[in-house]
Structure formats: structure tokens, C-alpha cells
Amino acid sequence: MTNPYLGEIEAAFKDGDNSDPSWVINVTGDGVLPSWFAVSDFAAATVGAAGLALARYAADDGAPASVTVDRRLASLWFGMTLHPDGWEMPPVWDAVAGDYRAKDHWIRLHTNADHHRAVALKVLGAAEGRAAVEAAVSTWEADALEAAVVEAGGCAATMRDLAAWVDHPQGNSVTREPLVAWMPHGATNPRTDTIDAARPLAGLRVLDLTRVLAGPVATRFLAAYGADILRIDPLNYDEANVAPEVTLGKCCAELNLRDPADRAVFEGLLSSADVLVHGYRAGALPGLGYGPEARRALNPALVDVSHNAFGWTGPWSDRRGFDSLVQMSCGIAQRGMAKSGADKPVPLPVQALDHGTGYLIAASVLWALKARREGRLISARLSLARTACLLTGQETTPTSKPIEERAADIAPEIEDTSWGPAHRTQFPMAVGGIPARWNYPASALGSSPAEWTANG
């Protein structure tokens, strides 16, 4: 199948390695997600890219296995895959988060985190509650409110159209960034250890410093093929509305990186990791004393892959952001509104920027691991905003028969999560005969010690 996104993705990975792999995915399944952008093609392409990188890594010096992606299941894996049995997931959004009409334009407030909600309410001088926030927002111009909330440490985004984003200093900067920015770090000792054909990532230690949602999607994928994933969060941090979805296959620990004892633990973990995946804003880790040079000093052979929301250049490179905010800023929500004839923003049917970036992060990790086996060290950076440039390159017309999950799409196996038993949607990809299998069910944040498991 010719996928409209795969060519640009292939070009991005050839920037990291000039070899000439076969970038072909076999696509099965039917249906599309209802959107004015080709979200289901995008899902198949990004999931397939991770699969192609896995096949290439697992093959070592042999021919890579074929990769098959079920278009229907890939689309469903861009949403929630967990199906609780006898219990319910918390709401995805808190009561304040959402789109509001300001004096001149629409604006979105992201308030799922308690401190972000507190900032928004303080800036607005509003009581908690949708009606009070609506009334307060209506007295502001959107750009002024966006700036005030961001300056105070919160998260907000004015709705812009596609053309306005390209003309915006940040949008203009991001469009000139590569989809995957590769950075070479010289030579290292080639790896000669044997790869287990059934669990090709077994023995690899991945230190996961990511939050909702792109980074956790990436490390969930790596866990499916045997990687030892250790997620580290601050003390008492929680993501109750998504943790059951994205902690599958991981051990989840807590550390206070401002405490000397916990810093020593973290440095020991970092020095013994194969991979670091992190989604902090550009200045966050350096601010803790763990900038790129410090990380490489602790672990010269580290595969270091990072992502942020708004890109790595331009005035917003250090701005807090989430998928829904990037959709507002970069023109996706406005395009959906205009094409639909709606009277409010129309975002994508799923958080496709997060999920798509997540699979591209996983592919980048595998590409860099393959390079390390060959004696070359490379690292990579990605962003939701640059992934949005890829997605918006293909518009389409929503189908009258959108994908709906069927009973047969749900795997019969029970997953005993920390919250209760559940089922998962069937995994959307096959790489030769390599099974996708997770060592652990989804678990609560902070439920494990900050140490590598016996599997790692």
C-alpha cells in the first residue's frame, strides 16, 4: 500500500542512517477515523515506522522481517485501548479544561494538572466551574490571556488557522525543523551480544522520564518487545486519567531530583541505562544539573531521545504544551471548524500528535540502538508541533462510516492492573513472528522501587 506519510518518515530516518532499508508496510483492515486530515493513514504510517525500525534492529545483519499493520486497530490504538472489567477509568478531562470564546478568538485552557488549573483560575480571577470560567474568559482578548496564563506557569493556546501558524514566529521556526533531528556523538564500541529473536529488546534498560502522552506511548511499545522500562516521576505525582492506559509493561518509581540521596540513585540508574527517553521542556533537565553534557559524562554510550511540545527552535521552544494545545496553535482545530461549518473548534478525533510522535520516538530509539550496535552513537529530538506539520500535509473528507470498535477487536486475556481487571484492544502490528507481549500489567505511578528488574 502507498501511504502518503511514509515517504517523509523514511526520509527523516535516512538522515539518521544512510542505509537503504525497505520502507514498505503491509496494511490490512478497513475504515477510517472521521477527520478532515488523514488520521488513519497517519496512524498506520507511524505504527508501521516503529515496526520497520524494530524489524531492522531484530534482524541485525540479516534481512528484516515484513511488517503488517492493521489500519483499523492502529486507529483504535490512537485512542484508549484499556477496557476495565467492573471498574471505571477517571474522566479524561477535568471540569475546567476545554475551549472558551474570548472577545476575539477561541482559546483552550489545559487544566488537568492541579497546579495548571490553579494558575488559570488565578489569572482569570474566577471561581472553579465552567460557567465562572466562561464569563471570565469572555472579558479577555485571546492572545493576551494565552500570554498571561503561560507567563504564570499555566497552559493555554489561542486558536490559529494553518496560514497564521506558518506566519507565526514559532510556526515558521518549527516548519523548518526536521521531523527527527539527529545528532551524532562519534564512535563507540560495537555490540556483539546476541539478539533474542522472540524478545529482541530483552536486556535493554530504558529510563523513562516522560508524561502524557507521547513518551509513554513510545516506551509502552518498547516494553512490548522485552525492554526493561523504568519510569521515574516526582514524589506524589499522578496521572490517574491515563496511567492505566500507558504504564503497561513498565515499572513505575518516584524520585526527588532535588534531594541528594535520590539524585545519587538517579545517577546510578542513568549511568547503567541503555536508553533515556525524556519529555521535559528544553531547560528542565539542565536546570536540575542533567543537561546533555552531564548525561553523556555519566553514560558515554547512552542512547538519548527527547521530545517536547512546540519544537526545539523559536520563541516557544521552552513552552509547556500538550497535544490539544498544539492542535489549537497550529491550525488543526480551526481547519476542522471551518471545513465542518461548526461554531466552535473541531479537533482531531484522537490525540494523534501524541500517539504519532510516540511511535516515531520508539522508531528513533530503535534506529539509534541499531547504530550503537554498529559502533556509532546518535541521539534524536522530536516535537508534537513538527509532527503536526507532517499530519496536516494530507487533508481528506470524513467518511460516513467511521471506525467503531467491535467485540472481536478486544483481546480475551485479562490484564490485572493496579486498578482492577481489564482487557486490551488487540495489538495493531505484526513484525514477522515476533510477538508483542508485556512483562507486567499496567501499574500505579510510584508503585515500584527505583531499580532495574531482573529482566534488565
Task: Provide a compact summary of the structure.
By secondary structure, the chain is an alpha/beta fold. The protein has helices at residues 6-14, 39-59, 71-76, 114-124, 130-137, 142-151, 162-167, 169-175, 214-223, 243-246, 260-271, 284-287, 292-298, 323-329, 332-340, 352-373, 384-391, and strands at residues 26-28, 67-70, 82-84, 98-101, 106-109, 156-158, 181-187, 205-209, 228-233, 250-254, 275-278, 303-308, 376-383, 415-417, 420-424, 429-431.
Notes on the protein architecture:
The chain is α/β, with parallel strands linked by helices. It has a domain at 6-90 and 177-312 and 349-431: Crotonobetainyl-coa:carnitine coa-transferase, domain 1 (Rossmann fold), CATH 3.40.50.10540. Helices cover 35% and strands 16% of the residues. It is built from 17 helices and 16 strands. The protein has helices at residues 6-14, 39-59, 71-76, 114-124, 130-137, 142-151, 162-167, 169-175, 214-223, 243-246, 260-271, 284-287, 292-298, 323-329, 332-340, 352-373, 384-391; strands at 26-28, 67-70, 82-84, 98-101, 106-109, 156-158, 181-187, 205-209, 228-233, 250-254, 275-278, 303-308, 376-383, 415-417, 420-424, 429-431. It has a 7-stranded mixed beta sheet with strand order 7-13-12-11-8-9-10. A hairpin with a 4-residue loop joins strand 4 and strand 5.
